[in-house]
Specification:
By secondary structure, this protein is α/β, with parallel strands linked by helices. Helices cover 18% and strands 31% of the residues.
């Protein structure tokens, strides 16, 4: 279960830097308890305990080629003519040993007969069934897979903390593991707030907009390997928000809301969070996305992290990327939680507020080592995120970054380093 520090009841009295905010968030969450799942449900999850091989893999010597199992001493020179004494296919067993001057036809994966230590591939023979002529000298031991060549019985094959990819799932399958213990994947309740927000199929009235945030954020949750629990649109009243958050606590390990975290008359997220739990901070020296609330909602002895993200669609998705995604990965058992970065030459001049750290949406070209912005960078222009494959990280302290300067980019299309 995730935890929130006991000091989290106090909201910050000053803007947090991005680094301070992320550090406090990551310090307040912990990996979820382990749970056992079916093997095919473990892709992308983190292994909760070491896995040892219960037996050798492969469990027997077998042929790596279609060909003839022979004694290496008989085929050290070519041509060599040998008597064919039988045939063994994958899934069957040889009925006798191979002696000097003899060969047995074998298929790929078939057990090696006793006496044979080498496989001559079909292409290096005349492929006859009674007597076979070996046309190419073959080194002893060629094309034979030894028992335990892949995994040795009793060895630790996969360590606790391993991120399970297709290859690791294949390794678990070879050991007969139909179920596996993983760090739990966070269930994330996603809520939108605001009277101006309507469902996708609704007729838009004056001052109303369609709810993009629930869909982009729920998709971002799923892309992080977690399970979105998609709620509805919460009206701008404290009663409705209180009811929605209490419902979310019963269904999720984390709550993510969008909208209602600024200082307007209808921004209710912070006071309701304080009532139901605590606020850690709510302002970050960043653009876009300065108003952001982080804290916990209590449900008995559970303390459920809650992120109140801004309502503007770019601000919402960008702050999810910078703050929520790393927290979800940490709760999923990951140790590396930040995307890889790269240096690039900026192709277009970018102006920004001097006192804020600015994350421009960019298009990074790895081949040329350059990056350019996606065009207009307003916090309501969601297309700026759609066109981007990176974030251009422009630190505070300057108001202009000139074309031709070297800048750092966050590669948002690349996964975090594996661990």
């Amino acid at each position: 279960m995730a935890t929130i520090s006991a000091t989290s009841a106090k909201a910050s009295t000053k803007d947090q830097t991005v680094a301070e905010a992320l550090s406090r968030i990551l310090g307040a969450v912990a990996p979820l308890p382990a749970r056992e799942v079916a093997l095919l449900d473990s892709l992308g999850a983190v292994l909760a305990s070491d896995v040892r091989a219960p037996q050798d893999v492969p469990p027997f010597r077998n042929s790596a080629m279609d060909g003839y199992a022979v004694r290496g001493s008989d085929v050290a020179t070519a041509p060599a003519r040998l008597t064919v004494i039988g045939n063994v296919a994958a899934g069957s067993a040889p009925t006798r040993a191979v002696g000097g001057g003899e060969a047995m036809r074998v298929m790929t994966g078939a057990p090696m007969p006793d006496g044979a230590d080498t496989v001559v591939r079909v292409e290096d023979t005349d492929n006859r069934m009674d007597t076979v002529t070996i046309t190419v000298a073959t080194p002893a031991g060629l094309s034979v897979r030894q028992a335990g060549e892949d995994l040795r019985s009793g060895e630790v094959v996969l360590r606790e903390g391993t991120v399970l990819r297709a290859a690791e799932i294949g390794v678990l399958a070879t050991m007969g593991r139909s179920r596996v213990s993983i760090v739990g994947r966070p269930r994330v309740a996603v809520l939108s707030t605001g009277d101006e927000v309507v469902e996708l199929d609704a007729n838009i009235g004056p001052g109303q907009i369609r709810d993009a945030n629930r869909y982009s954020l729920a998709s971002a949750v799923r892309a992080a390997g977690c399970e979105p629990v998609v709620g509805g649109i919460v009206p701008d009243t404290t009663d409705d928000l209180r009811r929605a958050l209490r419902d979310a606590t019963s269904r999720a390990d984390v709550i993510v809301t969008s909208g209602g975290v600024s200082v307007g008359d209808h921004d209710h997220v912070k006071p309701v969070m304080s009532e139901l739990g605590s606020i850690e901070f709510w302002a970050i020296a960043i653009r876009p996305g300065r108003p952001l609330a982080f804290g916990a909602v209590r449900d008995g002895d559970r303390s459920i992290p809650i992120f109140g993200l801004p309502g503007n669609p770019v601000s919402s998705l960008l702050t999810f990327e910078l703050f929520v995604r790393p927290a979800l990965l940490r709760m999923s058992g990951r140790t590396n939680v930040e995307r890889p970065r790269a240096k690039a030459k900026l192709l277009d001049t970018q102006k920004k507020p001097k006192h804020l750290r600015f994350f421009a949406r960019g298009i990074y070209d790895a081949e040329t080592g350059t990056v350019k912005t996606t065009g207009p960078q307003g916090s309501s222009i969601l297309r700026s995120m759609s066109l981007a494959n990176c974030l251009i990280d422009l630190p505070e302290g300057r108001d202009t970054y000139q074309a031709g300067e070297t800048v750092e980019v966050i590669l948002t299309e690349h996964p975090e380093p594996r661990s």
